[in-house]
């Protein structure tokens, strides 16, 4: 790589207000460039310290007394922190619990129940497999029909595409805020308004935007949402997910996995189930306390940096990478407009699995989507411009045509 290119990257890092956050993560000594933060974020130093402290100070010393000393409230308390820092959600509407799959199952059932007499669910045929599988199962269990959208890879779901299938029978529309393949960022406020105009409810999957794109759920009028925390929120592999239910629906949203943690009185041990009247009604079983503690550490890191600042750096990083890829003649399959793009850049290569293998051998870790897609994820708090340049340099030498 030329001296001038190195100088540009160094200047970008020097002017980056979030550059100090890179040192807040544990390093991986054998990695030249980690370009998969959109699948699994790096490990925050604070999380490693907090979990070690939790094991020795809270679990070991307080034992079961910990439940009465704060553990019981963690799903709601950390949910409120996440809502405030990341989702634009007022307190009492967000929970941290379960997995994205389980939470999507819950909120889709709840949403369909809130629109009796309507028998269609609208979803994207290009969505992540979990979303499609869950939509199909919920529809089958409720004797409903799925209307599948067939969006363009880059343009994705637009008002025109959505308008072709919306109607009086539409109960729920389930969409992903950022396309997991191309990084296309959907217009959440506009599409939500269009869904409401049809009388349906909007369910959003925020997995690829939570922690890197402001969502402002309350302001946009989103009805229900789900998302994971192990990508840009850096909460660790398999960390608990989150769900959001707008306040107006809390009293009547019925979910299908009732458990003792969603009961009005956890310790009544009543013969008949009576749901909590607040967001706790969306819980099920005993929460993963260690996992939620890790989520809290990741959320607090984003809250400290500020979601708007994180988004600003994300657009700079992805724009910088796209410029490099264009100069090298790569086939970029992500939107060119920064405001239409999430925080990963996708390129087309002949054999993505083989390309990914070669990159990993050379110390660059991307994400592979077979047969021909490489996703290059840029996590703003832990990724520098110099690291992007290092990764690109390897990519160009082992994958891209000369």
Label the overall shape.
globular
Structural class of the helix and strand makeup? Answer: alpha/beta
Radius of gyration: 22 Å
Spatial gap, N to C terminus:
14 Å
Level-2 CATH architecture of the largest domain: 3-Layer(aba) Sandwich
The total count of strands amounts to 13
What's the CATH C level of the largest domain?
Alpha Beta
Order of helices and strands, N to C?
HEHHEHEHEHEHEHEEHHEEHEEEH
Beta content: 5-15%
By CATH's scheme, which homologous superfamily of the largest domain applies?
Type I PLP-dependent aspartate aminotransferase-like (Major domain)
**Order of neighbouring strands in the sheet with most strands:** 2-8-7-6-5-3-4
Which percent range fits the helix content?
Answer: 25-40%
Enzyme class: hydrolase
InterPro entries: Aminotrans_V_dom, Kynureninase, PyrdxlP-dep_Trfase, PyrdxlP-dep_Trfase_major, PyrdxlP-dep_Trfase_small
GO molecular function: kynureninase activity; pyridoxal phosphate binding
Catalytic activity: L-kynurenine + H2O = anthranilate + L-alanine + H(+); 3-hydroxy-L-kynurenine + H2O = 3-hydroxyanthranilate + L-alanine + H(+)
């Amino acid at each position: 790589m030329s001296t001038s290119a190195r100088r540009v990257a160094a200047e970008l890092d020097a002017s980056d207000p979030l550059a100090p956050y890179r040192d807040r993560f544990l390093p991986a000594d054998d990695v030249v460039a980690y370009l998969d933060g959109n699948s699994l974020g790096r490990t925050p130093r604070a999380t490693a310290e907090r979990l070690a402290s939790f094991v020795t100070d809270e679990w070991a010393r307080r034992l079961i007394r910990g439940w009465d000393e704060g553990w019981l409230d963690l799903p709601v308390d950390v949910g409120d922190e996440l809502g405030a820092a990341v989702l634009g959600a007022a307190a009492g509407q967000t929970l941290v619990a379960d997995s994205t799959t389980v939470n999507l199952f819950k909120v889709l059932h709840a949403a369909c129940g809130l629109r009796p007499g309507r028998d269609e669910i609208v979803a994207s045929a290009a969505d992540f497999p979990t979303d499609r599988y869950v939509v199909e199962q919920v529809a089958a269990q409720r004797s409903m029909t799925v209307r599948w959208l067939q969006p363009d890879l880059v343009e994705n779901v637009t008002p025109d595409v959505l308008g072709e299938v919306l109607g009086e029978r539409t109960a729920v529309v389930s969409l992903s805020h950022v396309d997991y393949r191309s990084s296309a960022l959907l217009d959440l406020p506009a599409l939500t308004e269009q869904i409401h105009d049809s009388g349906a409810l909007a369910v959003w999957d925020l997995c690829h935007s939570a922690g890197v794109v402001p969502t402002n759920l309350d302001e946009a009028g989103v009805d229900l949402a789900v998302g994971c925390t192990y990508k840009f929120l850096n909460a660790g592999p398999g960390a608990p997910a989150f769900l959001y239910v707008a306040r107006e629906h809390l009293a009547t949203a019925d979910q299908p996995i009732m458990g003792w943690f969603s009961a009005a009185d956890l310790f009544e041990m009543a013969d008949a189930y009576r749901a909590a009247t607040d967001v706790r009604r969306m819980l099920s079983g005993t929460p993963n306390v260690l996992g939620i503690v890790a989520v809290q550490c990741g959320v607090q890191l984003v809250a400290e940096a500020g979601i708007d600042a994180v988004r600003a750096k994300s657009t700079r990083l992805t724009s910088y990478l796209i410029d490099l890829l264009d100069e090298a003649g790569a086939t970029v399959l992500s939107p060119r407009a920064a405001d239409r793009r999430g925080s990963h850049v996708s390129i087309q290569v002949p054999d993505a699995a083989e390309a990914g293998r070669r990159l990993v051998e050379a110390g660059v870790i991307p994400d592979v989507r077979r047969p021909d897609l490489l996703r290059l994820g840029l996590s703003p708090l832990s990724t520098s411009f110099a690291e992007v340049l290092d990764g690109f340099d390897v990519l160009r030498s082992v994958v891209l045509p000369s």
